[in-house]
Amino acid sequence: MTTPSLAQRREALRRMQGWLLRRPGDFEAELHWLSHAEQLGLDSRLHLTDWEAALKRDPAQHDHLGRDAAQLRALHRQLRALYLSRAAAIFETAAPAPWHDWLRLILDGSLEAPSTGRAAQLRALLDAYRRGKR
User: Fold this and answer.
1) Triad 69, 71, 72: Cα angle to 5°
2) 3-state secondary structure labels for all residues of 4-31
3) Alpha carbon 8 to chain centroid, angstroms
4) How far is Cα of residue 126 from the mean position of the Cα atoms in its chain?
């Protein structure tokens, strides 16, 4: 395992900030946001694990890597809070009832932590919704 480069760390932080700033939209836009935010939550957890392992191996990197890890951890918490809020609000968007019903099944249970299964289900629902619109 290698220490992540500054460019890799900055890209991870930039992606996280970009998704935090996206405005709410219609059902499809919100479903797209939830799908990507779920995957981004998973990715950020992996990055944090790697970055923290790199810090343990090379404490001299603490100033730079430690600061980036702390920033990513804070952004991850912000994204998760926004995810919970938008997951609740998506049911106020206009969409035929079956789509809300499917989404309700996917979002049933704890949403506190990202889930690989939920990420795949959200992507599949988004794909099906887009196919159904054609």
Assistant:
1) 65
2) CCHHHHHHHHHHHHHHHHCCCCCHHHHH
3) 17
4) 15
- For 108: left if phi > 0, alpha if psi spans -120 to 50, otherwise beta; the answer is beta
Pairwise CA distance, residues 123 & 128, whole Å: 9
Chain segment 34-76, per-residue pLDDT in tens: 999 999 999 999 988 988 888 888 888 777 788 888 899 999 9
- Position 2 scores a pLDDT of 61
120 contact partners, CB below 8 Å, separation of at least 6: none
Separation of alpha carbons 31 and 118, rounded Å:
12
The single-letter DSSP state of residue 94 is -
Q: What's the whole-model pTM score?
A: 0.85
pLDDT-based confidence at residue 101 (cuts at 50, 70, 90): very high
Structure tokens, 89: 């609000």
